[in-house]
Design goal:
The structure holds two protein chains of two kinds. By secondary structure, chain A is an alpha/beta fold. Chain A is 38% helix and 25% strand. Chain A has three domains: 141 residues, Nucleotidyltransferase, domain 5; 38 residues, no CATH class; 149 residues, ATPase, nucleotide binding domain (Nucleotidyltransferase, domain 5). In chain A, helix 6 crosses helix 8. The chains are: A alpha/beta, B alpha+beta.
Chain lengths: 339, 131
Amino acid sequence: MQESPGHAANGKGLDVGTAFIYCAEKQGNKIVFRTQRDAFFDIEYSDFTKEMLNKSKVNYIQKEEKLYVVGNEAIKFANIFNKNARRPLSKGIISPSEREALPMVELIIKSVIGEPRYKGEPVYYSIPGPPVDADFNIVYHEKVVHGFLAKLGYTPKSINEGLAVVFSELDKDGFTGIGLSFGGGMVNMCLSYMSVPIFTFSVSKAGDWIDQQVAMAVDETASRICAIKESSLDLTKYTGLSKIETALSIYYDNLIEYVLQNIKREFGRTKKMPRIDKPIAIVLSGGSALPKGFLNRLKGILAKVRFPLEVGEVRVASEPQYSVVRGALIAAMAEEERR
Amino acid sequence: MRGIPPRTMCDVWSKRNKGEKIRTVVRYVPQKEKVSKVDEEMVRQIARGVTEGLVATLGEEIARKISPSSSLQTSAAKQDDRVQIKETFIDPTEETKLEYNFERLGKIKESDTDVHKAIEALKNLRANKNI
């Protein structure tokens, strides 16, 4: 590892999401993203099973008498066995019920982000905003991830997930507007004025909540619902839907309305609302904003909600799932270039 | 049982001390344990001035029956008395022996997206605003 940055002074971005971990770094003229699904599926250890996984090139971690299949294969295994994959993160933070998985989360983060290119390379990692509908805070999560990265030799700094979306998508709007990240565990919101986060919060319902509710409604596993949602959901359709698609459609509407009502309520409570003289842009990002028709669903519900700010353009980010990590990378590189 | 709901005879609170990798578990011990009617009768007999031998026998009997709660009461005579148990906090960054069959994880995607303009805009904005 180099002692000084030299010409490769870049920094990295890291999105520690409930469903996926993303890393972004600049290599030459390109931005390279690395994505890893944040899921495990545990199976009993045997020499035969281990050999089979090795031959199939399935990534696994062995801990004591268990083999933990990691990543996308964990979802596949879960679906084969008709069970749910285990998730080390829940509702945007390290799951309190999965503490034994912490060394594995550390290993996955390390394997995604890699070694720093020079000692003390800055990395901005995303953290959720304070939840308005759940009784927990993010301090433990933030410090644990900070510890992982510092141990690897990085200079870690946290960035609010919604603000990262603003950095990634609202540069032409002077970094003024609302960044919304519809992730797996949470929906994060940031109202930014000229790159300054005025107002940030999160709600603890998001993609996972949709999966769980639909799974209960149609008696399926959440992992299977997740697979269907990610592969074929089309929110432009209202008729001719299967039972699962109908349930997904209903719960998507419910989630969007819940998020917008929470934003409206929290804006109503705050005393620090800025006076912005032009309509503000809203940009949507995150893996749960990927289905076709999501934007129109949101616009339709937004039109019915008496939103407290004048809204201008509402759009989906060009690559919604990479917005947060891209914003984190921009923050890291901007800081590194200022040094 | 006054003041202590039956289901929370021994409530547990935990907190993590700042800067320390230890967790303090604070147990609130029940204020007072009910003395059975038999024990109360023994106490009354002692109070009436029975023989020394009987006093000794009953004293031993009382001690045997109520000593567990009695010993707790002596250390927790007041409602606010706390028994502190320090547990070792599991350091998440502690090395754990894991065997695994990969070096780097993750699907790679390259993008030609230009982040330079955003970086410049952010740098300028923050420099001007001294943020």
